[in-house]
């Protein structure tokens, strides 16, 4: 994602930005959030927010990036002439920094699971993968710190070598393969005895399960999966060529994110009821349930290993862009400083990620506001910094940018979508974001 790298085609752009946007949010966070917040009710709210709030905001971020064509702690000044508005870019920078801190915890878990499954295979105990003990593995402070250290190191090396392009090329077949695997798991899950009540739990929106907290978290989830307010998508669009089509790209990314979220839900919830787990398991949900599903398959351990590698790949294509965002803002796209900034940034991320990881072991009894340290970092990013960033950008776009210029970038279409989109950004969404923001503190 270096400055000079422009994607020649719209497909190249979509692949790269989808690689960044689709990651742990859809596959790991969605099922666990839905499990804690009422299943089908959460899914419904998530869909409504993603389509009515997320999609227009994503189109907005793409438009800003395409108009501004520079890094995000400069772009607001470039577009409006007001230097202080760059603070919106710095807010996004802070958000991705903290986000990487707790993202790497889950990345570390994937690495620990990969090593454990390999160990099971080489010691000919592959029939035992269903007995992987999440609590024992993740409750081990040193193991998790090493795991997340490896995850951060992998990310740093990729960013330092500037080989993201290679990774993006690989995502052309890794992502479809991941889809196929998800479908495979869904089919297996649905075939289990007792699958139906879990399926009903995730698909049936029960009104009595809707809570104010659930509504807020569903909105936070839409922001998280679409990377909104972190300026990640603005950065991608700023690298894109003129040919990139804003609406089609945004729609594709929203559709893929929804699809992966639903597939993850369909893979996990039927298995939860079949194996007698609770949907409210929390962040470990995916790691607790999936080994059981794979255990039921022939060559299950082998398939689980491939799945985990694909999952790691999806997490890495997101984490490299998390780090890259900080690197491009601090180097101002000066490539000579790239390696040093990447290393310093990673060391700082590693430092803040340690308390996040220990939230699942030695620091688990530290609870305040949204829960553990990990929960609070997530809440700060998804429910505070991301909405603030998105709000700031809606105000800039709706109040300060020239409407006709926006129309040009938005492009014409037979449904005349520009006006409804523009009024949504100018009047409605800022109010919606402020209202939701205020409600959570009452
Ligand atoms: N959308 C990513 C996911 O679902 C997380 C994310 C948020 C992100 N903001 C970002 C990734 C900025 C890269 C850059 O996993």
Structure description:
- The protein is mostly helical.
- The chain has a single domain (10-441), classed as Amino acid/polyamine transporter I.
- The protein has helices spanning 10-21, 24-36, 40-68, 75-80, 87-122, 134-138, 141-161, 164-190, 195-203, 212-225, 232-239, 246-274, 285-295, 300-331, 338-358, 373-400, 403-410, 418-439.
- The longest helix has 36 residues, at 87-122.
- The two termini are 41 Å apart.
- Tryptophan binds at residues 20-21, 23-26, 96, 99, 224-225, 227, 230, 232, 318, 321-322.
- It comes from Staphylococcus arlettae.
- Keywords: Membrane, Symport, Transmembrane, Transmembrane helix, Transport.
- It is a multi-pass membrane protein.
- The chain crosses the membrane at residues 12-30, 42-64, 94-122, 142-163, 175-203, 215-239, 251-277, 297-320, 341-360, 380-401, 421-441.
